[in-house]
Amino acid sequence: MAFCPKLPHFIVLTALFLLAVPSHQQGLPTCGRSTLSKIVGGSESAPNEFPWMVHLQLIFWSGDAATCGGTLISKDWVLTAAHCLYGAVSAILTLGAHDITSSSSSLSFNVSSRSFVTHPNFIYGVVENDIALIQLPSSVSPSANIQAACLPFANDPDQVNDAVVITGWGNFSNAAGSGLSPILRKMDSHVISSLGTNGKCQQSAGLGSFSGEKIICSDGSLQRHYCYGDDGGPMNFYNQEWDRWFVIGVAGTGDASIHCQNTNKPNVFNRVRGYLDWIEGVTSLKPITTTSTTTTTTTTTTRPPTTMDPSYFDCTNKPDGNYPNPASDCSTTFYMCSNGISFLFTCAQAGTVYRPEIYACDWPPSVAGCQ
Known about the structure:
With 371 residues, this protein is mainly β.
C-alpha cells in the first residue's frame, strides 16, 4: 500500500505507438481512503473516518502550549497552518488518533522547529500564505487508522456549493470552560464563493481583501464554524467520481472566544490548490492534472495507475518512468515507478504488449521478446 504520490507527465508521440490509458475509476493511489467513504452527518466522527488527521501540541519559548490540527499528505509530511508554528520550539504530532486522551492505535512524534517549513511569504496576522509543512522524523506506514489524504488536482474548479467536512479537536461548546474536544469531531458545510477579491466570503469575513486563488471558504452559519484548536486542520472534500477524500483547505485562525459557534462569519481556509507548486518544491510531491491537451503532433497527459503492486516490483532508487514486467518478455502489462512507488498498468489496446524501447505498448511483431 502506498501514499499519494504525484504522477509525472509524459509526452506521447501519437504517430509512433499506442498509449496505455487506464480506467479513471482506478486512477489514484490509495490516498484519501476512509473506513466511511460518505458523509454520514452528526458531530462526532467515527474511528478511522478521517485517518489523515494529525493532532499538534505546540510548545513555545514561554513554556505555553497550544493545540492545532494537521493533515498527513504523504508518509513523510504533515500539512498545517503557518500561524500554528509561529514562535513554537517543538511539537508533539499524534497520528491515527480518535480519542486524543487514548494512546491505543495512535503514533506520536516529537519534532523540533527544525522540522517546520513555513511558506516564505507568510506574515503573522495576514490571511494569505498561512500554510506550513512539518517533516516527520521517520516515514510512517499506512494502516487502518493512518492514511494520507489526497492533495487536490492542479486544475480543480473553485468548487462553490460543493459539500465539505471540517474536522478537528477544537472547542466544541459555547459554554465557558468547555475546553477542547478529546474526540475528533466533524462538521458538514459547503463552499461559498471567494472568487476574485470581492466574493461572498470577502464581504462577510471581515478580514479585508484577499485572493480567491489563495483562499477557500465554507459557510459558517447555523453553528457550522470552526473554533480555537481547529486551526491548521483540513477542509475535507469527498470526490465521488474518484472515490477519494481530498484536503482542499487549511484552516485559518480559530476563534478563541466562547461564542465562536454563534457567529455567521464564514470559515476561512488557505486553498491548497494555490500552493501546490510550493508543496512540490518542499516535498517533491508532484501535482496531478485531470485533463489532457492535444496538438497536431503530441499529446500531453497525466496517467494515473490501474493497479498497485509494490511488493512485486521494487522502485527503490529507480528513476520515475515505465519498466517492463520482469515476469515475461512479451507481456500485456508493465510497471510505472513514481516517487519510489510501483504501479501496474495493462495495455489499453487489445492485442498489444509492452515494448521497452519506446516505453509504451506496441504490436507483438515489433517486440523482440515476442519473436
